[in-house]
Design brief:
The complex is a heterodimer of chains A (37) and B (160).
Chain A (H helix, E strand, L loop, with lengths): L1 E9 L2 E9 L3 E2 L11
Antiparallel strand pairs in A: 1-2
Chain B lengths: L31 E13 L7 E7 L14 E11 L5 E10 L6 E10 L1 E5 L5 E2 L3 E9 L8 E12 L1
Antiparallel strand pairs in B: 1-9, 2-8, 3-6, 3-7, 3-9, 4-5, 4-8
The chains are: A mainly beta (37), B mainly beta (160).
Chain lengths: 37, 160
């Protein structure tokens, strides 16, 4: 699902991009980071 | 109490004495053959309302045609800037998703931001081949901003 537009440049090559994502979800309480193992 | 070992004089070792052993420093077997700057900037128009979160990636996942970081490349994310046109508090996070377990995101870092902030991620982590960075936004404010402005800068390295 496209949720936004933007620009991307890699190595000097420019592109117009779409920003995509999963659905918006409800979160109850704080989101906690999971430490890297 | 001094520990006495047979053949060795008692007391602490004499650290001032040179040990006379030359050990080569271990070097990771990675050779960078090319560096490419990477930046992206965009506007997200579908903003989660208070109490909701979302996360996003760029185009195919990592770039316009790459779903994941290629196996012969690595990606260093240096800085991410994010702002919203409303005086609200939100949580912004950076996560990693792996090709072997898509849909599951491990949050590497998150912080609470008011309206605008930037995350200095330099030297914090190198994303390897088969991974991609994921950007996470959780609205803990009381209004829904019209949009989110987001930009990221980093470097892609082709390795051997």
């Amino acid at each position: 699902m496209i949720i936004g537009k933007g620009n991307l440049s890699i190595g000097g090559k420019d592109y117009e991009i779409n920003i995509v994502k999963n659905e918006i979800k409800e979160e109850k309480g704080l989101v906690r980071g999971k430490p890297m193992g | 109490m001094a520990i006495k070992i047979a053949g060795v004089r008692a007391g602490r070792p004499d650290y001032a004495k040179p040990v006379g052993i030359e050990v080569p420093l271990p070097r990771p077997g990675i050779k960078v053959v090319q560096q490419m700057e990477y930046w992206a900037a965009g506007e997200i128009i579908n903003v989660p309302p208070p109490g909701y979160y979302t996360w996003w990636v760029v185009e195919k996942g990592f770039s316009i045609d790459q779903e994941w970081i290629p196996d012969n490349q690595r990606f260093s994310l240096n800085k991410v800037t994010i702002s919203v046109p409303a005086y609200i508090t939100f949580q912004f996070g950076i996560g990693v998703e792996n090709k072997s377990n898509p849909g599951s995101v491990t949050i590497l870092y998150w912080e609470t931001i008011k309206q605008r902030g930037s995350v200095d991620f330099s030297n914090m982590r190198v994303f390897k081949g088969g991974e991609r960075p994921v950007y996470f936004f959780y609205n803990i404010g009381d209004v829904t901003p019209d949009f989110i402005d987001w930009s990221v800068v980093g470097v892609v390295e082709v390795i051997e």
